[in-house]
Amino acid sequence: MLRLSMPFRRLGGLACIAGVILLFANTTNAADSSGVRIADLDGKLRIEIGGELFSEYHYRGFSRPFLYPVLGPAGLPMTRNWPMKEVEGEERDHPHQRSFWWAHGAVNGHDFWSEGANAGRTLHDRFLEVKSGPEFGVIRAANKLVAKDGTLVATDERTIRIHNRTADRIVDFEITIHASEGPLTFGDTKEGTMALRLNEAMRLTRNRKPAEGRIVNSEGLRDGATWGKRAKWVDYYGPVEGQTVGVAIFDHPRNPRHPTHWHVRDYGLFAANPFGIHDFEKKPDGTGDLEVAAGQSVTWRYRFYFHRGDEQEAKVAERYAEYAQ
Questions:
Q1: What is the pLDDT of residue 33?
Q2: What is the CATH number of the domain that holds 142?
Q3: Whole-number Å distance between alpha carbons of 38 and 57
Q4: Residue 153, domain member (yes or no)
Q5: How far is CA 232 from the centre of its chain?
Q6: How far apart are CA 285 and CA 256, in angstroms?
Q7: Across the chain, how many H-helices and E-strands are there?
Q8: Pick from 219, 224, 231: nearest CA to 273
Q9: CB-CB contact of 46 with 53 (8 Å)
Q10: Is residue 124 a part of any domain in this protein?
Q11: Where are the alpha helices (DSSP H) in the chain?
């Protein structure tokens, strides 16, 4: 219970209310400055950790919401700049691969992965919660999956939890797709789904030649051998501005089709995809289709662990075991 001193009570009704609001505002700001602070900048949410920029959640003006930039340990950029920003030396391929996003290439036959002439759009509807805090910040948003012809295909709710960390960065991403407009079929294609496009310096290959990036999964497979394989986690690391940093994506044990397949490429695409069995295992078309009945929903959960060093130095397997529990 908040108790007011006698001098404060004598301020009168309106002044008293204003004083209480100011008191709580100052308390909240003090907590946010040392934790995770999220501020709306009209079309994007700015996310700071300990007073320093971590990322921005872009929710208006693009084909889908995404996070960019993503700054990892020591403030190093973990994802590609293009097409959001022109930077010399970056390749300009796959313009739909925007930093950090969720999308799938076949939802009731509609393509929400690419940004071509026939692609659908994931449109921001409203925020359900935007909260700063000393331990973590939360973004909860509702979105609409709209086909090229304007048909509403489905809706989603996504929760992004940003943890207050100093030496590393941890983000939890949860997405629920609602079959709100009728039954849904997630098609059997490798074009998806929970994805990053990494900093160009972290690539496994560059100009068709070996580069300094490395990939490893929970089953001990490395580099090109990780593509399309099932694994609990995958770690992708490499040199950025003279330091070795990486990111591991953890597939939650409760996810449908855990452990998931991974659409992880030597040019820096890094995606968990539970649908593309036809591509990954060379099975008949449609083998990987996933059906959701009208009025039902399906949920996926992932953790992103941005760290220093390789998977051994970062103790990725131990961090995954903690997450899985």
A1: 59
A2: 2.70.98
A3: 10
A4: yes
A5: 17
A6: 19
A7: 4, 20
A8: 231
A9: yes
A10: yes
A11: 6-9, 13-33, 277-281, 316-324
Q: Total domain count for the chain? A: 1
Burial class (CB in 10 A: 0-12, 13-18, 19+), 15: exposed
Tell me whether residue 253 is in a domain: yes
Work out whether the CA dihedral 202, 208, 211, 214 comes out positive or negative. Answer: positive
Q: Tokens 């078309």 belong to which residue?
A: 285
- Cα dihedral angle (4, 6, 9, 15), rounded to 10 degrees? -90
CA distance 200 to 94: 13
Q: Which residues constitute the domain of residue 291?
A: 34-324
Q: Are 153 and 111 in contact (CB under 8 A)?
A: no
Domain assignment of residue 291, yes or no: yes
Let me know: does 124 contact 43? Beta carbons within 8 Å.
Answer: no
For 178, the token pair is 């609602």
Helix H segments across 128-286? Answer: 277-281
**Alpha-carbon distances, residue 60 vs 45, 57, 171 (angstroms):** 10, 9, 21
Residue bearing tokens 């509609």: 110
Q: pLDDT value at position 89? A: 86
Query: Taking the chain (325 residues) in consecutive chunks of 10 residues, what is each chunk's mean pLDDT?
Result: 32 38 34 80 97 98 98 98 94 96 98 94 98 98 98 98 96 98 98 98 94 98 98 98 98 98 98 97 97 98 98 98 97
